[in-house]
Design a protein that fits this description.
about 140 residues, five-stranded mixed sheet
Length: about 140
């Protein structure tokens, strides 16, 4: 059931997420999460500034009301679940731009002034790393 992945900074994408609260698949039968995975991987491949951020995918993050969901995580940092994205390049770029700042931060807190516009309003939860609670 579990697959080991690199424990470094990562965006874990729900690859089964729907496009919206009312639409699972697009006209070609592709889900929103699968589109978001593809957009993230394409940007990561095309732009060296995203090289340090892994794009990992898994089925269902259990945040179905907040379609196109991602979990941002890194060792010893507060993690975040974000959702309500579209599976397009603009969403993928905003997520990866935030992830770069997140990876460079000491504890996972990114100053609001550095947040890309595309992630504002998309945060669902924050999660403490194992063995810690956030202040």
């Amino acid at each position: 059931m579990l697959t080991r992945v690199d424990p470094g900074p990562a965006v874990v994408v729900c690859n089964t997420c729907r496009h919206s609260r009312t639409s699972r698949d697009d006209a070609t039968g592709v889900r929103g999460g699968a589109r978001l995975v593809a957009a993230l991987k394409q940007l990561k491949q095309d732009e060296p500034r995203y090289a340090s951020i892994a794009v990992q995918e898994m089925a269902c993050l259990f945040a179905c009301q907040d379609h196109c969901t991602v979990h941002l995580r890194a060792p010893d940092k507060v993690g975040y679940v974000l959702g309500r994205f579209t599976g397009d390049e603009a969403s993928a770029r905003a997520i990866l731009d935030y992830a770069v700042h997140y990876a460079a931060s000491e504890h996972g807190r990114v100053p609001f002034s550095l947040w890309p516009e595309g992630v504002k309003g998309h945060f669902i939860t924050r999660t403490p790393p194992p063995g810690f609670v956030a202040e």
